[in-house]
Amino acid sequence: MTDKYVYEFSEGDASMKNLLGGKGANLAEMTGLGMPVPQGFTITTEACTQYYADGEQINDAIQAEILTYVGKLEGMTGKKFGDLDNPLLVSVRSGARASMPGMMDTILNLGMNDEVAARFAEKTNNPRFAYDSYRRFIQMYSDVVMEVGKSYFEKLIDEMKEERGVKLDTELTAEDLKELAEKFKAQYKDKVGTDFPSDPVEQLFGAIKAVFRSWDNPRAVYYRRMNDIPGSWGTAVNVQSMVFGNTGDTSGTGVAFSRNPATGEAGLFGEFLMNAQGEDVVAGIRTPETIDQLKDENPAVYAQFADIVSSLENHYADMQDMEFTIEDGKLFMLQTRNGKRTAAAAFKIACDLVDEGKITPEKAVAMIDPKQIDALLHPQFDGAELKAATPIGKGLPASPGAACGKVSFTAEDAAARGKTGEPVILVRLETTPEDIEGMHHSQGILTARGGMTSHAAVVARGMGTCCVSGLGDVTFAADGKSFSLGGQTFTENDWLSLDGSTGNVYGQQIATVPAEIGGYFGRIMEWADQYRTMNVRTNADTPADARQAREFGAEGIGLCRTEHMFFETDRIAAIREMIVSKTVEQREAALAKLLPMQRGDFEGIYEAMEGFPVTIRLLDPPLHEFLPTDEDDIVALAADMNISVDELKNVIASLHEFNPMMGHRGCRLDVTYPEIGAMQTRAIIEAAINVQKAHPEWKIVPEIMIPLVGEVKELAFVKKIITDTADAIIADSDVALEYKVGTMIEIPRAAITADEIAKEAEFFSFGTNDLTQMTFGFSRDDAGKFLDAYYDKKIYENDPFARLDQDGVGKLVKTAVELGKSTRPDIKLGICGEHGGDPSSIEFCQKVGLNYVSCSPFRVPIARLAAAQSALNNK
Ligand code: PEP
Ligand code: MG
User: Fold this and answer.
1) In the predicted model, what is the mean pLDDT of residues 439-457?
2) Residue 540: CA atoms inside 13 Å, Cβ hemisphere, count?
3) Crossing angle for the helix pair 150-164 and 127-140, to the nearest 10 degrees
């Protein structure tokens, strides 16, 4: 049991991130480095966990400890909560181990009340500043602590500006702001039902609880699910004495990166605003100045800042994202953290840091988030089409890539339409953390307001989603259902294309082409491949997919789903004919049509794989995916088979299954109809012989894989069909072809009898899609309908079909590995379920000792990097 829940900044350091959160640990580290940090304390993540354990209460002991640290802070600053002569004002900010945009961010100026504001006005001789700070505090507290929407307050500000006939907030006088503060408090009382709290201690506990609560708000929970962050981590709370960027023209506030977060270019990059506080820079209400202009504004502060930035970057050996405030010409650092960056910037920065001698190649490989690679591999606009198109506006190139979709005006709408597969572009005045799900389901995001560090820009970059921000020419109609840009009016369903690399916006559809990879990406991947101990194969069903995967570095095929070779319209009839055949003759006629198609595809796949191993799985068609349902298809098929439509309909009806996922599929088909397995073996072996003859420089060793095995005897039965067929063909040929026979492990019974299974199988490939389905007992096709309720109720944190359930399904995998090796020590082990492309699941595969992971072609680079990181982590 811990009995310390609060740390002064001077008590911590960067290594204490788990306890102090990222923000708190870095404030502590900067304090230790002697940098100008306004002092304060951090309430630990364990206090957050305890808050939940105590039924969402801060217990007496922790409350007392917090008050002790308030006392210490008062001692350190010589200021006191609620004191009229020298009031202590603080900021309260959340800070988890990983930065989480879904959570509560900041409350500034806590400690203000009517009396403090009045005295503050007198003492500073700056009533405008005092009342500006006060009204901001009421607004932020109401919004983030009591959840009274921001818009009520913004409306009051707009009304006041209109009454006074002014345009900018800065044109409001001290008296105006004082009046606004009164109106804000009245609004608070109206919405909350009680007076705005004037006691700073009450304000502080209200704010701390709000941070703890925000850990579990729906946006944060969603963000965690997307980013594999466990709910058990909790957030820390940072309480820091205020410094003010809004005392007048010698004060200001800003955010900066030590390198360009969009391109990775070296050099300070950022924005600031004079006479402003916190949110002003990112809120996009006033347009910030670039950090270079600070040189003219205050050269001494600029020089000091530049110096601190370079020490921080050297110290952390990574690109830093910093917040600072200048109070009456004096610089203060409010935050530093490793900056979020685009995928392209991530690769450039990692390589540059190696070249600058600041990090090793190992560190370069470790510092890149494998999920980000997705963005690099994403399509760009087709060059010719782009050339022919004329932009209708240009905003900031906030997050690169090309996006084309139909306009959507709300996050809910974008999420709903995006989920159905419709490409949408979310068009907003600005985005807020509530919009995160809609942003996630959009192809691209366009905002009218906000700079390169606005919410939309930062979040889109993190997601790898294309974003153009701050396009001020976008004018929304009053009803919010259309906007105009470049003389055109757009409503829902109009096409829009965004170029997140240039900021250009096009009022039309523009085709996209796959991304080109190389350069920095190539260097990192080369290093990754050196550290990797697992192979990375691909799941590819066609020669084209196989070639794509080779380009991405696949070292073989881990799964060729032979039933997927028949999805195309000109082929589906042949496989349907096979499925609905009632007699052996009918089936053999259908199989004769399938044989040349399969053989041709297999040849193409062996060619594409250039001698790398190729695992081909026998047919595993869940019947509901293949049976014809369309009247036209049924009529055509009946004609093909020379039977009546009614007869065919009867067969189809007889094949209906209640649980097709657990029905007549996989090896069960070969047990019933051995001629299917025989035909497929013939295609696999004949194709291999043909390609081997054409390429004596390669050694082709087909791996024939039997799906959905649960019992060793059914495996032995199907294996015999394969070996009888293959051996006869090989004996008749002039090639001494070798081949292997193995099985999927995707049924729990196979996993727990894997010692028996391994006596017959030369390799195992874990089919964790079915293994998850069968272990949980819910269908892959239907789980999406109810899993949301499980996330809401905190029963599951992640989709077990996307991220391997290590406690349950993983235990079966581990058991099967151990049992399999006990009877066949040299058994080859891989995974080919979707989890083979998921970084956290890949780490698990490394730990249990698999030889390879296999995933879809576009995930191959992700898997290569994740496998390298897993190997480094488990060295
Ligand atoms: C699996 O079940 O994990 C698998 C790879 O096979 P399929 O998805 O084709 O059922
Ligand atoms: Mg399966």
Assistant:
1) 82
2) 31
3) 150
Compute the average pLDDT of residues 43-64: 96
Protein residue with its CA nearest to atom 4 in ligand 1: 767
Decide whether any atom of ligand 1 lies within 6 Å of the 541 Cβ: no
Distance 790 CA to ligand 2 centre (A): 24
Judge whether 624 counts as a catalytic residue: no
Q: How far apart are the first and last CA of the chain?
A: 32
Whether residue 767 has its Cβ less than 6 Å from ligand 1: yes
From the CA of 851, how far away is ligand 2's center (Å)?
19
Mean pLDDT of 12-28: 96
Its sign, for the CA torsion 440, 446, 452, 455, is negative
Ligand 1 atom 10 nearest Cα = 770
832 Cβ inside 6 Å of ligand 1: yes
pLDDT band at 280 (very low <50, low <70, confident <90, very high): low
For 566, half-sphere exposure in the C-beta direction (CA atoms, 13 angstrom radius) is: 26
Asked if residue 715 lies in contact with residue 625, where contact means CB atoms within 8 angstroms, the answer is no
CA–CA separation, 472 and 764 (whole Å):
57
Rounded to whole angstroms, the Cα distance separating 28 from 9 reads 4
Q: What SS3 class is residue 743?
A: strand
Letter for the amino acid at 566? F
> Per mean pLDDT, which range of 184-193, 410-419, 652-661 is the poorest?
652-661
**Does any ligand 1 atom lie closer than 6 A to the CB of residue 720?**
no
**What SS3 state is found at 378?**
coil
* Listed residue (741, 730, 744, 742) closest to 687, CA to CA: 730
Distance CA 431, CA 469 (A): 10
How far apart are the C-alpha atoms of 154 and 355, rounded to whole Å?
49
* Per-residue pLDDT tens over the stretch 399-447: 778 999 999 999 999 999 998 989 999 999 988 766 878 998 999 999 9
Distance CA 575, CA 628 (A): 11
Q: Is 455 one of the annotated active-site residues of the chain?
A: yes
Looking at the CA of residue 834, tell me the nearest atom of ligand 1: 3
Could you read off the pLDDT of 570-620 as tens digits, one per residue? 677 888 888 888 888 888 998 999 999 999 999 999 999 999 999 999 999
For 527, the token pair is 């290093």
Distance CA 174, CA 172 (A): 7
Of the listed 440, 441, 455, 835, which one is catalytic?
455
Strand order across the beta sheet in which 266-274 lies: 289-290, 266-274, 252-259, 320-327, 330-338
Higher pLDDT among residues 569 and 756, named by residue = 756
Residue 520 has pLDDT above 90, yes or no: yes
Give me the sign of the Cα torsion angle 511, 517, 521, 526: positive
Q: Is the dihedral of CA 32, 35, 37, 39 positive or negative?
A: positive
**Nearest 10 degrees: Cα torsion 14, 207, 281, 294:** -50
* pLDDT more than 70, % of the chain: 96
Query: Among 130, 128, 172, 181, which residue's Cα sits nearest to residue 153?
Result: 181
Nearest one of 341, 329, 258 to 300, comparing CA atoms = 329
For residues 533 and 527, give the distance between their C-alpha atoms in angstroms, rounded to a whole number.
12
Residue 746 CA: nearest ligand 1 atom is 2
Residue type, 579: I
Q: E strand or H helix at 681, and its extent? A: helix 674-694
Is the pLDDT assigned to residue 708 strictly greater than 90? yes
* Residue 149 to residues 141, 187, 191, 399, 697, Cα–Cα distance (Å): 11, 11, 10, 28, 70
Six-digit token pair at 519? 């350069």
**What residue spans of 276-382 are helical by DSSP H?**
279-283, 293-297, 299-316, 343-355, 361-366, 373-377
Q: What is the pTM of this model?
A: 0.82
